[in-house]
Here is the input.
Amino acid sequence: MPDGSLEHLKGRKGAFRIALIAPEVLEGLSQGLLETVNLNEFLALDIARLATQVAHHIGLDPQAERLLDTLAMLGAFKPMQRHGHVARALYDLAALHAQRDAVAHRLATHTSDVARCWATQWVMLSGLPLARQLESVRRFAADPHFGVREFAWMAVRDAVGAAPDEALALLQPWALDADPNIRRFASELTRPRGVWCTQIEAFKSEPWRAQALLDALRADPSRYVQNSVANWLNDASKSQGPWVEETCERWLRESDVASTRYIVQRARRTLRKSGA
Here is the structure.
């Protein structure tokens, strides 16, 4: 995947409108030679073209009927859903490949962040037990690209919702990890409501089940993690406001530092609006 000629584009700032994205940027994105730098680029790239390029890069047949049929029907789906369908088509083709593990590795380490997003979906499609899914998705939870990290937690969200207490036990060490991306993943994955994902009813009705995980993050030094923890509590406040208020008060008593105060301030935003 030669990309030397695009080196000058790697430090670019993303266009604030899709119409302003430079043609050579769109070309690089659709060839799988560049990472997206914002949501506009993610939405603007040619998914069908990227999929055929990526299939070729990772050793699959870009003209395989399974893939072409999927690409032909992408227009019938919402933008985010299209990625799931592409990921499934590539997964099905890889399942028939003699070197399936090598194909999976090439996808997981692809230059394109969108290709790596598709790789996260393979974890969901694997049918592995939750512990194995978390092991497999960890590399994506720590990915340098923000988009891959978002796809990573969404890929295992349903599995966590089906086994919330097991997930909390498995994720507890993640909340203590040296990498803030891993710590943030533990929080974001278990949010009661979240964004663009299924809700976890167990944590909406009984958020205190995640107390140990949240306590480990209450004074996290990373703003990235702090925002996620605050959003976790804000989610919970919509169904269990008194518990969230009690938790915030306890944290301020036990950890009166700037990071905790910031989390508590953001966590209480719905409570403030409701006058609680």
Remarks:
- The two ends are 56 Å apart (CA to CA).
- The chain has two domains: 14-155, 165-276.
- The chain has a mean pLDDT of 95.
- Residues 14-155 form one domain.
